Each structure stands twice: as C-alpha cells, then as structure tokens.
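ok so I'm stuck.
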Amino acid sequence: MGYPNPTIETYGQWGMLNAMGLPNPGIEEYPQEIAVARDAGATVIGSIFGADAEEFAALAARMESTGVAALELNLSCPHAKGLGSEIGQDPDQVRAVVRAVKRAVKIPVIAKITPNHYDPASLAVAAESAGADAVSAINTVRALAIDVRLRRPVLANGLGGLSGPAIKPVGLACVWQIFERVKIPIVGVGGIQRADDVIEYVLAGARAVEVGTAVAFEGIGIFTRLAKELEERLNSLKVSRVEELVGAAHPSGVSR
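replied:
not stuck anymore, here's the structure
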C-alpha cells in the first residue's frame, strides 16, 4: 500500500523529496501491466524489491516469466523499513541477494546502489563478485523537509529520498568511484535534464543513464528532446559514438 500522504514534496526545479513506501499492485498484477507495455513495442526492465535473498529470487523468477528484458534490484530505497538500503548497505547481503537472483533467472541482472553508504563502490564490487551483469547508481539520497508552521516533517513518513538536479554531483561521484573498481557496465542515475548531464555521467564511467524526476516535471517528451540534444552535442564535440567517452574523464584517460 505504501505510506499515507503526503508522500512528495518538490523543490522547484532543483528536485523532489519523496517517501512513497514503494506502493505497487504486486507481482500478481504486474504481468498484465507489462503485457500492455510490450504489446506497444516497449523494452521493459523489471524492478523488484524484497526483504531477503529468498524473496528477491522468487520475485525475480516471476518477473522473468513476464518477458522483461532485464531485472533491476532495488537494494537502495532510503526509507523503506526492512527493505531497500537496509539490505543494500551491507556488502554481504548485496552479494547474497544478487547471487540468489542470478541462480533464479537467465536474463541480465542490474543491482541499484545506494549513495547512503560511506563506500558505495564497495557495494558495486560485492554485486559484481556475485555475478551482477551491471550496476545502476544512484538511488535517492536520504533527506528531510520540515514545515516550520506545523513543526513537523512535511512527509508523513518523516525521512524521504531526494532526487533531481540537486543530487547530480553525488551521482557523478558514485559512478566515478565505481568505475575505478568494477568492470561491469554502470548505469548513471541522478539529476539528468540536459545532454551535458548525460555526457558527464558517461565521462565518469556510465554506459547508460536513467531519467526519473525530470519526467515528472517535463513529461515523457524529455526522452525525444534528450536524444536530439545529445546527438547535436556529440556532433559539436566531434564525437561519433558515445562509447568513445565512457570513463574518458578519469586520469588514466582509458575508456572501456
């Protein structure tokens, strides 16, 4: 069911604070929703969360049966009690979850990394060692907003997760650190609104990006705009393929 309202607070164009509580219709209903998307020609990556490795594995198997192209493991929600980053902050648990899921499915598995840890790259290393095909970084940053008139947190849950442009430097730093320590692909996440945001993540080491909060502000048209702007920007930089820039900002200058 998720948390009661209010669950979202926006900060103009700087970002969004949310504590939704992971509301969703459940794995029994998802096959119908995914079928609608796939029938429309969409490539679907399923996102799952659970309380332990066994639950993750069971959900992964069910999600794979719907025909999704890959799975992203939510190991990083900063406000879901007993779920998310409470599991994802422990490298041993990350390793156990990824290993269990990899045994349960044949499709690619992406582990989503939390920034709410003193060493996020160590979590990516744990995921890679357990067989993850890729990691995505980052999920939201733990945050709080307080109503000074009511003298209480704005969100019903109190603590929430901050997303949007305000966290881009944090996301870039995590991708940078992870690239230095793992060889599997990285999906960069956090604050992407413009073509240069995409390129920054790629230069830090990402091979793909996720866009979330900007969709809430602009709508799904942002994907068409970003693709067009990215092509124009790469042309202006005399770069023929995005792959040429992966990790190129690192001191070694070696991309992979």
